[in-house]
Amino acid sequence: MSGPEPLPRTATRPVLTVPALRRHKVRDGAEPLVMLTAYDAPTARLAAAAGIDLLLVGDSVGTAVLGYDSTVPVTLDDIIHHARAVRRGAPRAQVVADLPFLTYQASDEQAVTNAGRLIQEGGADAVKLEGGRTQADRIRAIVSAGIPVVGHIGLTPQSAGALGGMRVQGRDLDGALALIEDARAVEAAGAHLLVVEVVPADLGALLTEVVSIPTIGIGAGAACDGQVLVWTDLAGLTAKAPEEAIRPRFVEPMLDLNGMLTEAFAGFAAAVRSGAYPQAQHTYPMKAEVLAELRASLGESAAKPGGRGNA
Ligand code: KIV
User: Fold this and answer.
1) pTM over 0.85
2) Ligand 1 centroid, distance to 68 Cα (angstroms)
3) d(CA 52, CA 31)
């Protein structure tokens, strides 16, 4: 049989269904949703086990782990590759996969085809795309094809150039009104969740009020129906040297993974160089008689340490 190997599925997954998510508003008594990015199997496994509600295979993979300066170079195949790993690590999680730059903007057909690949090949439950009113038709087309869509408005990193950089959105009246129209358009087009990135906290609260789908904020204040972070930001792991890395104000690292890993890597190097590693307990034994026979069969010179047979 050709094609990618099947991904793990279980009869009971996912724990949170799309219809249940759509109704999950804090104002109706729900707990805030917790979303975290994941790009590989171990982090997906750990995040799911820790009770994270939604795993996002974000195009932030580009800056967080692939070493790019922006999310623009990330391809659909990159996201599929990472989504498959996330699905293997967390078979029952609600996995959302990002449609990267220029994989949906060109036409409804392109959007539906590529969203379908994230579901079919990537094993995702839903896709996320950036944009408000301008992308409403794309959202409608993907939802009509039976694929759940998460919207994303505010700071949309794929179009950071057009927005004038990675800056707070909706600070003035026109900008804020435009984002409210965007939120309404995304909901009307059929999205079941709305990510709101880097807007004033009061606007995050207003956006949460005006839509009946849950908002998931990132730098959008505490009133959103949930929060999302990039896991490497949360863990203090930066692709660039920490002094060159940009840390937005909404990131509060809960760990110094840069420091912990540097210490572990340096410890390994030191242990190898000093001979402290490996010890006997790290090695595999061979029967003495096998070793004796091996030495005999190699001849005297080869058996000596560093010997090179008859050469
Ligand atoms: O790609 C990503 O990780 C995202 C989040 C920042 C929401 O879109």
Assistant:
1) yes
2) 15
3) 12
**197 belongs to the catalytic site:** yes
Contact 80, 95 (CB under 8 A): no
Helices (H), the chain: 18-22, 41-49, 61-64, 76-89, 108-120, 136-144, 160-163, 173-188, 201-210, 231-235, 257-274, 288-303
Residue closest via CA to ligand 1's atom 1 equals 58
| pLDDT (tens digit per residue) in 125-171 | 999 999 999 999 999 999 999 999 999 999 999 998 888 888 999 99
Distance CA 139, CA 112 (A): 9
From the list 133, 155, 154, 151, the residue with the least C-alpha distance to 142 is: 151
Joined tokens for residue 211 = 């839509």
* Amino acid code (one letter) for 8: P
The alpha carbon of 259 and the centre of ligand 1 are apart by a number of angstroms equal to 24
Of residues 84, 91, 119, the one with CA closest to residue 5: 84
pLDDT more than 90, % of the chain? 86
Q: From the CB of 98, is ligand 1 less than 6 Å away?
A: yes
Closest CA to 191 of 201, 180, 183, 199: 183
